[in-house]
Every structure is written in structure tokens, then in C-alpha cells.
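Tutorial, part two.
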Amino acid sequence: MLLSTLPRTRLRSVVQPAIDTPFGPLSFSTTIGSSGLAPRPDELFQLPGDRKLARWTAPGARVELLLTPYDPELDLESWGPLTGCRAAVWRIDARTRLGRVRFTAELPKGCAGGYDGGQALAAITVDDENTRLTIGGSDEEGICRAAGRGEVPARWAELIDEVHDPSSSTWGVDYGHYQGMSWTLPPLEPGDHCELPVVAAWAPAADETANTWYAVMPSPTVLLSQVTSVSAQRADAPDAR
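Running the prediction step on this input gives:
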């Protein structure tokens, strides 16, 4: 369960959770087997600091989605300032064996960009004359590496050979028409969980630094640690007492 120790307020679930970007909402969806989860979550909570946590309960699984501001703490001597940066952490907890799970993050149709991945990063970049937007998450190599941090099942580390020989693989990242990405996971066994990050960062198109690319590289562990750290600072502030 994500951030179980943080205080929360239950909200009415009326819209599909999304990250607002200059190119429209970045929406999220989950498919388990052949069944897609409803766009609106079963439960929605407000967390401290303009953060929301959505939760779906499905046969054999629980799915959570955290939406949060994110500060990538870029060195401004090397990188230009960002205009905005928001992140999501998606988590699934398996109660039964799940042979096929697919998680998608997607911009509206017509916002197609181009592939911008590398170094264990799955990413696309969309731009126009004013703004550059990069959306990033873990690629197949990044998912295998995440096994060492406890973000995915430990046995997934052994799938690294499939990353370099995808012809026989049944899982991985699909970029579609480059308006987003879909992650099809390896099978999940009862008791398994998987956490995936998605980060959206945007900056003026005239900025020639790779600031948006470097901003979208954090792991779920980094994102969740920043949330708990900021929440603890708020709780310790004098006006919070």
C-alpha cells in the first residue's frame, strides 16, 4: 500500500485521475487480463501538499495511483529551470496469479511526439514552438534493475536477458504513436507487487539544455521518499502545530 502512514481525506471520485500538462491531460489506465479498470477509481484521497491517491479494487488485485508534484532538484548552473514537473507512482498488489497486466500513460490524440529513451529510461518528448514536454518512466532494463530495490518482484532481475533479445519476450514497453507509453508486465504471483514511476516535465522550447529529460528519471523509491520528506517538514512547521 502506498504511503499508508500519511494523513488523508476521502474525496468524491468524479473524474479520471490525470496530470495536467501544456499538451492536455496525461491520463492513466490499467488492464488486467482482458478487462480494463474503470476510469474513475473506487476510492480517492487527498494527501498533504496537493497530492492525490486513487485506488481500485479488482478481482485478484488492488491498484493504486499517486499523483504528486515533484522537484527533480536540477543543478540550475547546468540546466535551465523547468516550467512544471508532476509525477505519478502506479502500484499493483496481486492477490491471485495475474498472467497479463498492462499500465498505460497517454496524452490526448494528436499530441504525438518522438522516442526519447535511453539509459534504462522509457521516454517520449512532445514539443511545439513554445513548450517542450518529456514524459518518462522505466524501460525494460529499468524494470529489471528495480528488482534490487524491492519495487518489483525479485525474480524479475533474471529477465534481463530478454531485454537484449526481445523476440521471445511477452512483456515490455510499447510507445504506440508516441503520445504516451504502455507497460505490459511479466506475470505476477499472489503476494507480488509492482511499482512504476511516470514523470512529466516541461520547459520553454527555446531552452537548449536537456533539463526535461534529466527530470523524468527518478524511481518510485525516490518519488515516495520526497513525498514523505516534504510531508514530515510540513508537520514539523510551526504553523502546523
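Residues 9-233 form a domain with the Beta-galactosidase; Chain A, domain 5 fold (CATH 2.70.98). In part three we will examine how such features are distributed along the chain.
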